[in-house]
UniProtKB/TrEMBL annotation:
Residues 1-88 form the YCII-related domain. Belongs to the YciI family. It holds the Pfam family YCII. The lineage of its organism: Bacteria, Pseudomonadati, Pseudomonadota, Alphaproteobacteria, Hyphomicrobiales. This is YCII-related domain-containing protein.
Length: 100
């Protein structure tokens, strides 16, 4: 199954996000084979990260929630909103070239 992990940063967490970025990336490496797409939401004026979205393959909703909860960013309280939903593709393709 595919799940969406949607996270919005709490105000004033940019420095904490920067401090924990290496630990966050290390954590994600363990899930590289299951992450279909991932990236930050960016503030259109400043370009700063303001949250993020993941499409991840997991067997259960509980596994997807654990993925989201165990991220160092989550443990540090960076997010004001964190939601996990099962997702079904109805249109489009996931076969696209990553940017950046």
């Amino acid at each position: 199954m595919i799940f969406v992990v949607h996270r919005i940063d709490a105000p004033g967490k940019s420095a904490e996000r920067t401090r924990l970025r290496a630990a966050h990336i290390d954590y994600l490496k363990a899930f590289e084979d299951r992450i279909l797409a991932a990236g930050p939401y960016c503030d259109p004026e400043t370009g700063e990260d303001r949250g993020s979205m993941f499409l991840i393959e997991c067997d259960t909703l509980a596994q997807a929630r654990a993925f989201a909860q165990d991220d160092p960013f989550t443990g540090a309280g960076i997010f004001s909103d964190l939601q996990v939903w099962e997702w079904t593709r109805r249109m489009g393709s996931l076969a696209f070239s990553p940017k950046g």
